[in-house]
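Fold this sequence, please.
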Amino acid sequence: MKHLRKQWRPAILISLCLLNIGLVARTYRSYHGTRAKISYSYIGNDYPMTLPIKIDPVEMSFYHSVQYTPSHPDSGTHFDSLVPRSGGFIRLGPDWRAFSVAMFHELHCLFAINRALHDPESTYLRGHFTHCTNYLRQLFLCSADHTLEPGDFMSNNLSDHSNIFFNRQCRDWSAIYDFSETNIDEFRAFRTLNYSSASSHAS
């Protein structure tokens, strides 16, 4: 009996090794196959949570910028310069479905709040003000940014607009602008091509 056990032991070990290798290979194929098959219809809620781009970290200097303050006569122009040609929207999917990009929505809200402070009697701006204060409040809580900052902002010389409060690591916002510019060009080219094709068929 002992002799038989010794005789079968190598075969059992080899079988177990082969079984493990097979399971690992199957898991690998299943995992990578699932990843490769990820696609979206862009109908209803079937779309990705974020833009399909890589955003690298960058360093940003925080300072007191007077041109975006409500008291600055050209603050509206400066805020307008932050809006891409797409108006902050991008088009995705086979039918070029429109989506708002959160970063541009946030900047739009800051601009709306800035305008509302200039024209508090405007019903339109008052509605924007209410929406935007709630939207930004929830975004701040959602991001739960735990970066440590010096707590002495008011001790800085706020009249010195070149005075840097601190530097911190951020996400490269230019990647979103670049994607937006490319996306609007592609969408307009698609729309022009379809319009030309439809016109030629109609004639």
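DSSP finds five helices and four strands in the chain. Strands lie at 57-63, 89-92, 97-100, 164-171.
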